[in-house]
Amino acid sequence: MWLLDFMLHSQTRIYLLGYWVFLAALASVIVLHQNSKRSSMSKKHQASTLVRKYFHLIVVATYVPGLIYDRQLLHVASVGCLVVFMLLEYVRYFRIRPTGQLLRQLLTLFLDERDSGPLILTHIYLLLGVSLPIWLFPGPCTPKGTLPGAGALVPYAGVLAVGVGDTVASVFGSTLGEIRWPGTKKTVEGTATSIFAQIIAVALLLIFDGTVNLNTSYSWIVGSITLVSLLEAYTSQIDNLMLPLYLFVLLMI
């Protein structure tokens, strides 16, 4: 009863929940559509980088309105989503009827090189990456705007690093990139567009989130974004999890 009262506390929360249900349905449609294409092509067909980044854009569309309008609801909803994701992975791994085998068939299409083991954790890493800055922020009930300067962007660290930066770097780097960073497959063009896109995203947040006041910390924010983009180019770790935490620490300094 408490949870129901919490979710229906205001008209804004009802609108947000309805909007999130729509995005969840959209993500499901993308999964089903891509699997229908695989059945008509080769069974070994894997989703392209561009297709996988659709989910990053859906995450941005999910988290930004929540951060602007109701962070408490977003905090609770993200924890609940993590529980659902872990439960679905449990069902998929053990092929628990009636949906276990279906989940296995649907999700294997979106495997990347980091999902080499028996578990499919990419989507869980993505959720953790954008959620951890919110969970680690000084209290979900802390009034917005309490951290001055770059600290005002701390809850947005996951959205900026993974939702915007990593997505743009992958899409532009794989389609337009020609100059590669030494010792990596990542391109200079991808990194440059990633930095530019994150700066544009910060500018948009200044417009739409009136509680974000960066004061005179613009140079530090640009430097932090640049460092995170360079880390994305060189890291071989799980970028969905590592990049947001790295930006989180830089913005807290």
TrEMBL record:
It is found in: Endoplasmic reticulum membrane. It comes from Acipenser ruthenus (Sterlet sturgeon). This is dolichol kinase. Keywords: Endoplasmic reticulum, Kinase, Membrane, Transferase, Transmembrane, Transmembrane helix. It comes from the Eukaryota. It is a multi-pass membrane protein. GO terms for molecular function: dolichol kinase activity. The chain crosses the membrane at residues 12-32, 53-69, 75-95, 116-136, 156-176, 188-208.
